[in-house]
Amino acid sequence: MSSDTAQYVNPVGQDLPRLEAREKITGRAEYSDDLSLPGMLHAAVQQSPYAHARIVSYDLSAALEVTGVVAIFTGDDIGYDYIGPFVHDETAIAKGKVRYIGEAVAAVAAVDQETARRAVALIDIEYEEFPAVLSIDEAMAEGAPLVHDNFDDLVRTYEADHAPNVMSLMQVEEGDVEAAWAGCDVVIEGEYETQAQCHTYMEPCSALADIDANGKFTVWSGNQSVFHLQANIAQSLDLPMSKVRCVTPRVGGAFGGKMEQTIQPIVVGLTRKAKRPVKLTLSREQDFEMIRSRHPSKVWMKTGAMKDGTIVARKVDIRLDAGAYGDDSPGVAGICALFCRGPYHIENVSVESRAVYTNKLRAGAFRGFGGPQVAIAGETQIDEIAGRIGMDPIDLRLKNAARPDEEWLGGLVLSKSAMRECLTQVRDASDWVKRRAAATEPLSNGKRRSIGIACLPHISGILTSGAIIRILEDGTAVLNTGAVDNGQGSDTVLVQMCAGALGIDVEQISLATPDTDSSPYNWGTTASRNTYMAGRAVVGAARSVVDQLKERAATMMECAPEDLEMRPGGFIGITGVPDAQVSYGDISGFSHWVAHGPVIGSDSLAFDGENFDPKRGFIKGFPFGRIGAWIFAAQAVEIEIDEATGKITPLEVWSAHDIGKAINPASVAGQVEGGVVQGIGFALYEEMVWDTGRLANPSLMDYKIAGTMDAPPNINTILIEEPDEFGPFGAKGIGEPPIVGIAPAIANALTHATGIRLKQLPMTPERVLNALQEKNEI
Amino acid sequence: MSEKIPLSLTVNGQTHQAFVRPTDTLLHVLRDEFHLTGTKRGCNQGICGACTVMVDGKIVRGCLSIATNCTNREITTIEGIEADGNLSPIQQAFLESGAAQCGFCTPGMVMAATALARTNDKLSDDQIREGLSGNLCRCSGYIKIVDAVRSVCGGDAV
Amino acid sequence: MKLHHPRSIDEAVSLLGKDGEARCLAGGATLVAMMNADLLAPSGLVSLRDVETLKGISIEADGTAVIGAMTNHVTIAEATEFDSGQSVVARAAAVIGHPAIRNMGTIGGAIAHADSAADYPAALLAADAVICVAGADGAREIPAGDFFVDYLETALEEGELVTSVRIPAAPAGSVAAYEKFARVEGDFATVSVAVMLQENDGAIDDIRLAVGACAPVPIRSPDAEQILRRDGVSDTSIAAACEHLAALADPVDDFRGSGGYRLKLIPVLVARAIEAARNGGAA
């Protein structure tokens, strides 16, 4: 069963095709909506027509009379069993009040879709409409109606500000910014605004739930964490977690949108009443209207520097429009506060970051998690300073780049920073100096080309993960990590690491799918963390496996475990004696039938980096404890600008990443390429638009994402592999950084070529043209 | 409520039969009546391309095709692309290039790429991108998808 | 609710006449999308897919191109039968949506829907096309300028269907182009311009300019065309001509752009369309 030691090729670092690629390419992969169970009912949802209203009563009589209706689920079927990752403010379905247009307010399970849809429309709900707050300013105004009038009573994991509708406030102080301004040669101040972006995963939210004879639920759904989902369902429906089992079919993309509950509590609520399996799949429009978006933001920022380029001070005020429910907002606001200074050494920093409730769709986790909102402000201000002092923008960044082994904000230790390396490699790969110089002249076709840069910090890690490896009788293995693959390739990468750590081939490993009944806990596929955290658990579990193999082999070969070594190809042998070895298969057979028992290796860990040091800086209200390993990136984008129409066309991107070690370089490139194109959409045309509280463009006709002809034909992934001390095989994460620097890089390129500086995203052709015309009129 | 009528369609060379409503889309009938779930529903408005199938060799949107209007046609879905368990050249290229991430757009993308590869065997990158322009992917940025198609039918411009 | 498969235009007309709420099913690209969005629930569908006389492109003796209503966009886009002026319609067809839509969609279905941001209306107006329709009271011909009446409204009476589109032969040596500005590829136009142009030694003998997506219907301005014929093509003459076009425009603010922005794009696209036409129609 084991291969030859001499022939063994460690899969870590190889471009292996995804393990499940064949299934996806042949149409055999099963996503939630592809699943079916005998007796399954179909569900439909009624949505709130009001942005803010009290639910006075439900009249279900007409709906119940429809033949084929089996169950109806409303807020009357639950208690105020609140959930939420930072503030418990949300129930399984609207209860007592509705807080945004489009919120799910009633659901029907019936024998087929048509019946369910017809019946749910017959549910008559009486509302008492309240005034709504539809913007940050409205929500924070004196005397504003409260989105959550019982906010003070809600359970929170952090401290909160008490201004109206402000859900969380984080403050950071280091040094003395107010004293620092006077000494600065250059001070830049500006206000920036970013829009709500929709995840637009190709698979609309879908869930199927079943109930067994003992009242235990099984839930299949697209998700980013079976465990987090299990907890959310259990808590919101007042069930013990042991009665809720969450499993994972293939997931058609998530990007943060499926980390918290989507529609699963509603489906389980229906299943509980119907006592039959129930499936609900949202239409694309409902998915737009009902789930979550990226936080729209307003950022005020002031940066001061010396004429030699030293950045001395930065002061920031961040306001995030969190929508109707807390969701991940305090976390996003916290990351904004932490990252808004950029990957730089700046001695004087002052930040206030708020998440504000409004009566709109909740905003939540979305790739970048606050990074994109502060990067557009921070990275364009860096370029503004560069312009004012006559320094190249990359040189300015290099001069101020956070140094290895220096304290970060609030005393978090950096330990390592490949920030400089990211910048220099992007500069070289993009032929920066030449392209920058060429940008001052228009092209012969009247258009302009230009290149811009941005760089960014992010973290990879946070919270907890586990892994279990069992060696089967013949020496092959089963790996179980509970980590959900949303398409980014974590399944394959984790198996590669397991195989590499055990010295066997990937074909010898069976990967168990995430299942709350049998998988070890993994907090979730988020925070760019699976490679790093689940990977560390895998490597730890493999270490335990090898120790156990040695223990058994010692008995078999009558020696001490210390005399033994692991040999690639699946062998344990006596060090220095090439012929004395036993295969994993032999050992496992021995374990099962003779002595010691089967080999089961496991590991469980919490991110254990340093916490904030209160002596280093003042940090108040940060909703995380220890966060993660630092990852840095630098990105350059070359664009073409059509000055007659204002259209910006991205031509080429160079994206350098401090990745530690690329376990599967092709998968890393895939993450970079996908993130870059999402960043281009965020920069240029993606925007969710509200019209007096109603989402006005909940369709792919009106909300546009990039197609093949809009995405740049060349995206260059540059990997900086300086191994992380704790990362598995030195690896760190890659999921989020690729989206973060794109908008500021494009904005900086635009300014370099045309002199105009846009401070609002997206940079639509209309906004660009208006700015160009305004500039030419002066 | 619509009465159901019998429908017989030829899909991947086989006859499938079901009782359907006259206005049921081909997408609905393929997935929910014939249980060929490889074709996906991403938007039901004809924009995302996840429902792309072939009718008489040309790519169309399953979500915008009325099933009862597809009688006497050769319908091909993703399930019909592999032959006797062997991946087609386009499928093999997708596998090797890493073109499938979450995989939800992949069946539609493979259909569009397959139709494209049948038209000509020397396509420029621009032509490849245009041929796939009706298939949205949110994961990949399209680079490896184009790499895959280029490896099968790329070459000098027509 | 029934789906009918007539085999002739007369049969189709008869079926439509029997049920006022029935709709024609051509390619389905628009109709089925609207049904999926619960915007339409027709009581019956009259599928035109088996009416052979509605398909295909033919050229009459005098050079008039006749396009059957059930001809797909891709067929029109790839047709070699058109003269280089008539090709403006093919160039518009080539940028409708994306490949699958071009395979499914038909010219009859598209123009009957009359979306003001669609691609055929401006091209047909520039080409002086005539729309042939058939109904219970017989057949009639409607010039493109009269066919498009308002947003999503045509001159079709109840029970009538489009049978073909006739495009007269273009003046000898005409060139044409269709210029479309959109947010992303495959989107409906923010603004589009169709041009057909006949030049002789630098003098413009004939020019037709139609602007799409800037009003409920496509617009043409005889005054604008007169200025270009008289003064030739220059930045000044284009600006002057576009003032007349702008006066006829009534653009909306929507997700694809504001009305003000659309007005700014008109002269830009007119200039580019003329240049493209001179360069053989390529962008």
What does this molecule look like?
In chain A, 28% of the residues lie in helices and 25% in strands. With 778 residues, chain A is an alpha+beta fold. Chain A folds into three domains: 5-29 and 463-606, Aldehyde Oxidoreductase, domain 4 (2-Layer Sandwich), CATH 3.30.365; 32-130 and 204-251 and 258-290, Alpha-Beta Complex (Aldehyde Oxidoreductase, domain 3), CATH 3.90.1170; 297-462 and 612-777, Aldehyde Oxidoreductase, domain 4 (2-Layer Sandwich). Chain A has a seven-stranded mixed β-sheet. Chain A is globular. The N and C termini of chain A lie far apart (78 Å). Chain B has helices at residues 26-33, 89-97, 106-119, 125-131, 143-153, and strands at 5-11, 14-20, 52-55, 58-61, 74-76. A five-stranded mixed β-sheet of chain B has the order 2-1-5-3-4, with helices on both faces. In chain B, a hairpin with a 2-residue loop joins strand 3 (52-55) and strand 4 (58-61). Chain C has a domain at 175-278: 2-Layer Sandwich (Enolase-like, domain 1), CATH 3.30.390. With 283 residues, chain C is an alpha+beta fold. Chain B binds chain C through residues 2-3, 21-23, 25, 44-46, 49, 52, 58-61, 63-66, 68-69, 112, 115, 130-131, 133-134, and chain C through 1-3, 25, 28-29, 32-33, 35-37, 42, 45, 47, 49, 74, 97-101, 103-104, 185-186.
Write the layout of secondary structure elements.
The complex is a heterotrimer of chains A (778), B (158) and C (283).
Chain A: H1 21-25, E1 41-47, E2 53-59, H2 61-64, E3 69-74, E4 97-98, E5 104-110, H3 113-121, E6 124-129, H4 136-140, E7 166-174, H5 177-181, E8 186-194, E9 206-211, E10 217-221, H6 226-236, E11 244-247, H7 264-274, E12 278-281, H8 284-290, E13 297-305, E14 311-323, H9 329-339, E15 348-357, H10 371-389, H11 393-400, H12 419-429, H13 432-438, E16 448-461, E17 464-471, E18 477-480, H14 490-502, E19 509-511, H15 530-557, E20 564-567, E21 571-574, E22 581-583, H16 584-593, E23 600-606, E24 618-620, E25 628-642, E26 647-658, H17 665-684, E27 690-691, E28 694-695, E29 714-720, H18 737-740, H19 742-754, H20 765-777
Parallel strand pairs in A: 1-12, 10-11, 14-15, 18-19, 26-29
Antiparallel strand pairs in A: 1-5, 2-4, 2-6, 3-5, 7-15, 7-24, 8-13, 9-10, 9-12, 13-14, 16-25, 17-18, 17-23, 20-21, 21-22, 25-26, 27-28
Helix pairs in contact in A: 9-10, 10-19, 14-15, 15-16, 17-19
Chain B: E1 5-11, E2 14-20, H1 26-33, E3 52-55, E4 58-61, E5 74-76, H2 89-97, H3 106-119, H4 125-131, H5 143-153
Parallel strand pairs in B: 1-5
Antiparallel strand pairs in B: 1-2, 3-4, 3-5
Chain C: E1 2-4, H1 9-18, E2 23-25, H2 31-36, E3 44-47, E4 57-59, E5 65-68, H3 73-78, H4 87-94, H5 99-104, H6 107-113, H7 120-126, E6 130-135, E7 138-143, H8 144-147, E8 148-150, E9 153-154, E10 161-167, E11 175-181, E12 191-200, E13 203-212, E14 219-220, H9 222-231, H10 235-248, H11 259-278
